[in-house]
């Protein structure tokens, strides 16, 4: 549990969306990166650090690392910015729309999920909080192969975090 004197944090996990709920389209995507080792601290962004800690956790459970996808990250950043600015309330409003936009860009999506959080937290602390929350943990350990991560600062320098998880058919994941 987090020390409430030092940070206020709230986590919410979205329900998993299956392929029957996601729209499909076939456009290609570029700019994917993979992180299997932690980047150098002075060069790493918060998003890269979150990817590192998520994949580190997945490895402890014998799961393959998630591949960071630029299309998913753009959607995640947009949602974090909307929450940080107050344009959207904290939560998962617009989740289905984000997944539709992703599908239009990268093609068929079998399943998707989303984690959000906010607080004055490091990457390791936010991932640790998600690990300790059953719904978030389930999403991080889910049958997904792509991830998008986005952060944005709101009032009081409070950081809003969004993770989007997608299961994309392997033959199409590299498109």
TrEMBL record:
SUPFAM superfamilies: PR-1-like. It comes from Chitinophaga pollutisoli. The keyword Cell membrane does not apply. Keywords: Signal. Residues 53-165 form the SCP domain. Pfam families: CAP (PF00188). This is CAP domain-containing protein. Coiled coil: none annotated.
């Amino acid at each position: 549990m987090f020390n409430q004197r030092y940070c206020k944090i709230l986590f919410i996990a979205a329900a998993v969306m299956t392929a029957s709920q996601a729209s499909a389209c076939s456009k290609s995507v570029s700019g994917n990166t993979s992180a299997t080792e932690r980047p150098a601290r002075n060069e790493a962004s918060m998003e890269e650090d979150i990817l590192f800690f998520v994949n580190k956790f997945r490895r402890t459970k014998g799961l393959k690392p998630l591949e960071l996808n630029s299309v998913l990250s753009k959607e995640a950043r947009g949602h974090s910015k909307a929450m940080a600015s107050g344009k959207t309330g904290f939560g998962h409003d617009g989740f289905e729309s984000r997944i539709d936009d992703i599908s239009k860009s990268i093609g068929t999506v079998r399943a998707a999920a989303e984690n959000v959080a906010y607080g004055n937290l490091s990457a390791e602390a936010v991932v640790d909080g998600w690990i300790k929350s059953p719904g978030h943990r389930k999403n991080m350990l889910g049958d997904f192969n792509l991830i998008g991560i986005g952060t944005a600062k709101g009032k009081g320098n409070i950081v809003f975090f969004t993770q989007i998880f997608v299961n994309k058919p392997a033959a199409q994941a590299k498109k």
